[in-house]
Amino acid sequence: MTSPTEPGNGGAQALVTCVECGGAFPLRETIRYQGEHVCAGCKHAYFQRVYAEPASAPALPAEPKFATFGTRLAAKLVDTVIISVAQLPLAVVAALALPKDQVITPGKFPGLESAPIAGFYLASFLLGAAYQIYFVGRHGATPGKMALQIHVVTADGTQLTYQRAAGRYFAELLSSLSCWMGYIMVGFDKEARALHDHIASTRVVHNA
């Protein structure tokens, strides 16, 4: 926006154009804001206009393809298999730690009053939480979602932070505790959001 110096000025007075009125003014007689120059006469009107304009709300990329209920269900099944396999060593350790007089029989599985079983449930919960939070916070998708080529994003299309991923994971517990209605919502929502997506303000979309 800088104009050539005026003839006979020895190159000392660089002229710049006021973004508000279009006039040419010496650089030292203007102020610069966000890369634009404003003359003294337009300063008041310029900043009134700048601060009056509402900030544009962030939005998802044009026409995102939201993951359907079937796609998300398939991804969840893949993740469930992976986590179940990872839980097997924990189950074996818990079974070996049971007192010898406490035998696991069909229809009579030890409850939370048994320390090894309580430890198994706690370790399984922490494993599942770490799995979801790490992969969604780090890669934007769990291995199941990666396999189906979908990922989780915020409302403006950016990747989740670890904190946001953790919030979404704990919100997903509500989707499970609501007789799975939180998941079924995906099939009826215009952006295919589950209950936990509404709570965490996230979307699940196909990879570009």
Structure, described:
- The protein has seven helices and seven strands; from the N terminus they run βββββααααβαααβ.
- It has two domains: about 1-50, no CATH class; about 70-205, no CATH class.
- It has a three-stranded antiparallel β-sheet with strand order 1-2-3, with no helix packed on it.
- The protein has about 210 residues and is α+β, with helices and mostly antiparallel strands.
- Strand 4 (about 30-35) and strand 5 form a beta hairpin.
- The longest helix has 29 residues, at about 70-95.
- The chain is about 45% helix and about 10% strand.
- Helix 2 runs antiparallel to helix 3 (about 115-140) and helix 3 (about 115-140) crosses helix 5 (about 160-175).
Which labels suit this protein?
single chain; 208 residues; alpha+beta; 2 domains; three-stranded antiparallel beta sheet; two-stranded antiparallel ribbon; 12% strand; disordered N terminus
Number of strands: 7
Using the alpha-carbon principal axes, give the shape: elongated
Low-confidence stretches: 1-11, 54-58
Which structural class matches the secondary elements? alpha+beta
- Name the quaternary structure: single chain
* Spatial order of strands in the largest sheet: 1-2-3
* Helix-strand sequence: EEEEEHHHHEHHHE
Report helical residue fraction: 40-55%
Q: Quote the distance from N terminus to C terminus.
A: 37 Å
